[in-house]
Each structure stands twice: as structure tokens, then as C-alpha cells.
Amino acid sequence: MEKLYISGGNPLRGTVTISGAKNSAVALIPASILAESPVIIDNLPHINDVEIYIKILKELGAAVKLEGSSLYIDPRGIQSKPLPNGKVQKLRASYYLMGAMLGRFGEAMIGLPGGCNLGPRPIDQHIKGFEALGATVESMDGSLSLKATELRGDKIYLDVVSVGATINIMLAAARSEGLTIIENAAKEPEIIDVATLLTSMGATIKGAGTDVIRITGKSKLLGCRHSIIPDRIEAGTYMIAAAATRGDVTIEQVIPRHLEGITAKLEEMGIRVLEGDESIRVAPQKQTPFRSVNVRTGPYPGFATDLQQPMTSLLSISEGTSVVTDSIYAARFRHVDELARMGARINVEGSSAFIEGNAAGLRGAQVTASDLRAGAALVVAALSAQGVTEIGGVEHIDRGYDMLEEKLLALGANVWRKDERVGIHGA
Ligand SMILES: CC(=O)N[C@H]1[C@@H](OP(=O)(O)OP(=O)(O)OC[C@H]2O[C@@H](n3ccc(=O)[nH]c3=O)[C@H](O)[C@@H]2O)O[C@H](CO)[C@@H](O)[C@@H]1O
Ligand SMILES: C=C(OP(=O)(O)O)C(=O)O
What we know:
This protein has helices at 22-31, 48-60, 96-105, 124-132, 163-173, 189-201, 232-244, 260-268, 308-316, 336-341, 372-384, 394-397, 404-410; strands spanning 2-7, 13-17, 39-42, 63-67, 70-74, 107-111, 136-140, 143-147, 155-157, 179-183, 204-206, 212-216, 225-227, 248-252, 273-275, 279-282, 295-296, 320-325, 345-349, 352-357, 366-368, 388-392, 414-419, 423-425. It is of the alpha+beta class. Helix 9 links the parallel strand 17 and strand 18. Helix 3 (96-105) runs parallel beside helix 5 and helix 4 runs parallel beside helix 5. The chain is globular. The two termini are 17 Å apart. The model has no long low-confidence stretch (mean pLDDT 96). It comes from Ammoniphilus oxalaticus. Cell wall formation. Adds enolpyruvyl to UDP-N-acetylglucosamine.
């Protein structure tokens, strides 16, 4: 069992380069299934979710080669096979196999997805979309079976703004006959990224990034080359970590517009953030305590729920009371009890955390990450704390942070990983 150790208190200083976005990568890889010639995806992050997806594609019969950060996928050998359990349960984004396999073969049998345990995460809107396109969807023994003799475009109004449903419907619609219109679509940058790939493959997609997306499908899509957008959640995590350690960090290879939600909140706390064209700097701070703020998560361009947990750590070391409300995942507060072990004072009521900030800071402790961003929250807290923090549940963090220790070490953090069975890496 691996653990991450952080001896806190070092201000992070220097530059860090952000990797390609996890939530794009895990949609672009299955999107390649729809093509009838090779797809090359550049700027691929080296994270566990991507590794699992590569294995799934190989299992389906694709020829896949990873060279550095470029992934070559030849989807021609892919066969329609059931994937009831196993790897699909290890990540959330395995649900994209439903849209992609349905689009390519007119059938799919996929186990229900895994991913972070954030409370209920239904996929009824995905199913509603597939049914509107002409598929019959049946639930059996923890899997969904989808079948369509013909996929035909339709108008689909999403009852809930959903990233996954928007992308999944786009995938199936890209190989459907005629026009599909998604209303009340999600507007996250990763949706534009997937639309760009599908357009390069030959589909016609208008309106991605707005709440109405129009997709005109093609019976045959071809391969292409595509570079993944920067990971705004990884970037936001480093911004928060820089502030929490009162460091001076330039975060490179980002799209600052994608970071407006977090930038605005940091500035409201009195933290200096300087925007470049493709970089963002969290500059040295005055020694006065950070101000408390209230945060409410929302669909993009609102404050990202995936940054709510690390933000809670920063607010724990600010002055005054902050209220953090997660309107996307009401139960996304499993990090709170762990932060309490480090001295944070947080009460959760309903979908809100009431944080009594303590500018004197946190102290190292033994903690466990229950999910990916809970892990990020604990890393931020540990970097700022006095003493050593031992973080378990590292496998969750590895789902989404590319070269975390290497990047933190280069910024001056004192971090190492220990596998109880083998010894120490990266000290
Ligand atoms: C792989 C991936 O991209 N994961 C992201 C994606 O997850 P994911 O795509 O699973 O999240 P959604 O955008 O679908 O979920 C948003 C909200 O809609 C609800 N909902 C969703 C679908 C549905 O059919 N029915 C329904 O009720 C969910 O329970 C949630 O409350 O967006 C989330 C919200 O930005 C992020 O936290 C995740 O990092
Ligand atoms: C919730 C997340 O991921 P997933 O949807 O893949 O579980 C996340 O990236 O914070």
C-alpha cells in the first residue's frame, strides 16, 4: 500500500507546467472508437484513468501505442464486446463507452461506472439521450445493454446540466443520421475539446460551449490528430497550493479564461493573481491573513465542484468564517473529517461546510484520501501544515494528477512516497 508523506511549511516557488485535462482525455480516447482510421491524441496526461482506458481499448481490439505524451490509436480492429465489469468499474468516464460503442456498432453492453464516490451519481440523462436517438436501453445485473437498429438525430432537453450526458450524446449523435440538438447542455471547456475532435473526424458540431449544441452526424468518421486542452482543475489545485504556502508560483501552459472562477475567489481573499497569455502567477503575499469568502459550486463557468475540496483546505487557514456550498454534489465533504485531524474546524450541514478559519495554520497528521479531490485537499493542507502528514488512499490521487511528486519537488516541497513493501521513492 503506497502512502504520500509531506513535511509542510515550505513556500512553493518556481514554475509548474500543467498537463492535458483528465476529463478531456477520458472522453477523447473512447471517441476514437467512432473513427475508421487512426487517431493521434497529443498532450496526454500520465494518470491512472488514462492507463485504464488504454487497457480497455486494447481489450476491445484496438492497436494502441503511447510515445511520450502522444497516444496513437488504430480503432479498426475494435470489436463489439460486452464489458460488464472489471476495468469499467474503476473509473467514472467508462460511461463514454456506451455512446461510442453504440455509435460505432449500434450496440453496447457496459457495466455501470465507478469513479469518485461523491454520493448519488445517476446517469438517467445519458439514457434519455440514447433513447431519443433510437436506442433501447435495458438494465441487467449492474450493466446497461443498449441496442439500436438505426440511430436518428432528435431534440434532447437535459433536465440536469450534465457534462457526461452532454458528451455521451454527442458521441452517439456523431454517427447518427441527421441533426441532434442538445438543449440545456453543459458548457465545460472539455465539451468544446471533444466537439473539436469529432469535427476533425468529420461530424458537424455547432454551439459547443453554449447551452444548445447541434450535431449533424456522419455514417463514416475518419481519424485525425488532436492536442488535449490544459487541465484547469490541476492548474487550480496548484494555484490554491501556492497561496496556501504563501509561495510564488507561475503556472504554465494554461488557458487563464478557464480559471476565472478560482482566480476571482483567490482575489476576493486578498491573494495576488497575475494573468499572462498562457500562464497564471500566484504572486508573493503580504503577511496579513487571507480573508474568508463564501463559495458556491456550479456548472461552468461557475466555481468548479472539483476545486471545492482543495479550496476548503485553504479557507481553513484563513481568517473568519467561510461557507462552502456544493450545489452539484451535496455530499462531497468526505475530506472534512480528515482535515479535522489536522486541526481544521469545519461543520457540515446539508450541502454546506461552515469553516471556522484559523490563520495560525494546520498540523501534520495521519490522514486518508477518500476520493481524488479529497486527496488534493489533503495535499494542499499538508503542504501548508507544520510537521509531517501521512496521506493514505494515494490511488485516488493517482487517478488525476500527472507527476504530482515530481512537480511539487521542483517547486521546493518536501514530499515523498513510500510503498510499505518496497521502500521510498522520490524523497
Ligand atoms: C469524467 C468527468 O468528466 N467527470 C466530471 C463530470 O462528472 P459527471 O459527468 O459524472 O457529472 P455531471 O456533470 O453529469 O453531473 C452533474 C450533476 O448532474 C447530476 N446528474 C448527472 C447525470 C445524470 O444523468 N443525472 C443526474 O442527475 C449529477 O448527480 C450531478 O449532481 O462532471 C462533474 C461536474 O462538473 C465533475 O465533478 C467530474 O470531474
Ligand atoms: C469527480 C472527479 O472525477 P470522476 O468524475 O472521474 O470521478 C474529479 O475529477 O474530480
